[in-house]
Amino acid sequence: MKKSSFLLLSLIVIMPLSAISVDQLLARFTETLFIPSVQGEFHVTLISKNGDEREIKARVFQKLVGETQNNRLFLFDFPANVRGMGLLLHSYFDDRDNNMWIYLPAVRRIKRIALENSGGGYFMGTDFTYQDLINRDVRNMDYEILDDAVIDGIDCYALKAWGKTEKIRQDIGYSFTISYHRKDNYMIYKREYYDFNDELLKVYLAETFIQFGNAIYPTTISMTNVQSGHKSIIEVKDARTEDIPDRMFTTRYLEQQ
Amino acid sequence: MKIKGKLIGLILLLTANLAGAEEFRFTGFYDYFGGIEPYRGYENLKSRVYMRPYFSGYDEDSGLEWVFSAKLWTDLMDETARIDPWDILDEAYLFLPAGNFDFYLGQRVLTYGFADVYGPLNMAGSANRAPLSLDEAYEARRPDPMFQVKFYPTFNDTLELAYVPVTRPDRERSDSVYLPDTKDTVIWSDNPYITDKLHNLFVSYSRYGEKLDWQFIYGNYVENTPDFVVPTVSSSTSVDITTEYNRKQTFGIAYSTGLWNTTLSQDFAFNLTDNLDGTELGSQNSDVTVNTQILANLPGSILSQTSIVYSYFLNYDKVAAGSDADATEYLNGVFHVYHTQPLEQIAFVVGHFERAFLRETLKTQLNVGYFFSPQVYLAPRAAFSISDYWAFETGADITLGDPPDADLRRNPSDDNYYVRLIYRY
Lengths: 257, 425
Prior knowledge:
heterodimer; A: alpha+beta; outer membrane lipoprotein receptor (LolB), chain A; B: mainly beta; Porin; 18-stranded antiparallel β-barrel; 2 helices; 23 strands
């Protein structure tokens, strides 16, 4: 009996067990996301394996509507072949399907598209998929707290997440992800995306952020596809949290811009 | 190339600043089309230098915006081939948002319906009816002078009224066409505007909702595609057949919705022509047309869009035989083919397949038109972004089988390929 108690105590001391539950971590992380309105200018740098760089610039607006809806608007300014193009995204935290409309200035047409129908799922040629950009319904996911980790000198909680069903996993596009939440503010510092062979596919890193009250907004984000060697860096300039009128998240505004 | 692109950009920006515009855009290219029709051998078809400057400005006090753009091109291989002066002014309009209203005044392209290709509700404005590439955007639909008001009772709903005082004829082949069976000659109108029939009205209601997008559309307008006036129908008497432009009404409904992982759009149009009973030789028949469009992702990250178009022509084949039945039958057939009404019912499928490589630096497309006949249209496309400003495009337009022997066919249907170096600022 004494021997087994000693063994248990040894395990507790040796294993860096996390002191937080899944629910606690998700709840605190959700609090960091709660920014009613935020807008800024996205400067996206696409870096290919051989070092070639391309740039995309867009104005981005985001607003929470009630507790179940998140509206996003992307207005592209650069390069010239996408200038004037706009994307309006209504995503939902409940069971409703997400909606996306694209405005194509060359033909003056607003076109409804499914998230899956856009660029093979990748957002404007970046390493972010449209699915990476939308909110995920936690009820569709399973979670497991992993051992705490120290990433780049930052103490983090580690959370593994995967879709509850095969279809959900296929829709999301990954077998599972491991997110490293900073212990000091619960923001995701790093996230690893694993493909359906359980091989590491992509690595997300949020290097800088700004704080709005309890909420946190990452301002330098990178996504590296470790399999292709391609990397995308998003820098958010001039991030602001003043209220954005609801009329901006409409097809009317999309067309006017 | 990067430095050269930036230098050109700087010059253009300076030009724009001199003009007082707040925004300046520019598209310019050089391209070359070669004919590769097997029965004719290799031909130089055309080689354009094209420019499209675009200026826009905004008055902060009044909220008034203005847009001015122009098109210019010349064919380096044919010094007589250059842009028609009436086509130089492209979109140019004033825009004023005021509360729940938007007002537009000027020259602007109007689009209706959700279908991207062969949209039966996309009725406003004239187009080039004899392009070498069916999907070429640079000489596509031309804007008309118009006044447009949009009223937004809610964030999701739009009521729109557009008044176009005068429209233009479609651009046809400029040379006259000899019809051998009746020895008649079709003479195209060279008037830049259709001035004998004025006033075009388009009314629509649109709703962009959570589950469905809707449009209800009504148009009362002068059709840009001509009907034909035949003075005498006879195989033995040669006459000049002239064109006339008649009024048409279109009643339409369109919707678009997500369906599993696809997007389904359908445009329904009932087109009512002046030729109500179908007895007038050379006039278009009324029709019901449905365009069903499915946007889906195929395995391998291939984006596909399939359009299925079905038309039923009312009172088809009701033209009276007259004194010369053979001549009537021949001319009726010629005009029906020209009006894309070769049969009482037609259906065709257009497939568009798109795959991007190198994170959208290289975009490839294949367009396939299947007309339920030996005629299959293939149009492969590739576009490579050399830099943020320069791109190289290439493609081909290939119709399997021999070109149709219709005497009044609109499209040359001759196989060709093109290369294009394009600069965008």
